[in-house]
From TrEMBL:
It comes from Noccaea caerulescens. One of its GO terms (molecular function) is serine-type endopeptidase activity. Keywords: Hydrolase, Protease, Signal. One of its GO terms (biological process) is proteolysis. The keyword Membrane does not apply. SUPFAM superfamilies: Subtilisin-like (SSF52743). This is Subtilisin-like protease SDD1. The keyword Signal applies.
Amino acid sequence: SGVTALIRSTYPNWSPAAIKSAMMTSADLYDRQGKVIQDGNKPAGLFAIGAGHVNPGKAINPGLVYNIQPVDYITYLCSLGFTRSDVLAITHKNVSC
């Protein structure tokens, strides 16, 4: 997308995870009139709104970026109680939790 290209041009060494994080952590939860984003005639819930409306200006200076690496997902799966064989089935990596 254009916002991804904008961020990549500003931070050429950022990983795809960092770029996604910049867009998500800087997204707006309000519309252009300053009102809560709606889902039909009610305020949008988390599943309807996601991270919010992308804000390109804020995304190039997000302040906070989560640069998650593949190994972090393995640690996360282990922390959720997945077994070694569960993690192997998902990641195709032999790990110990």
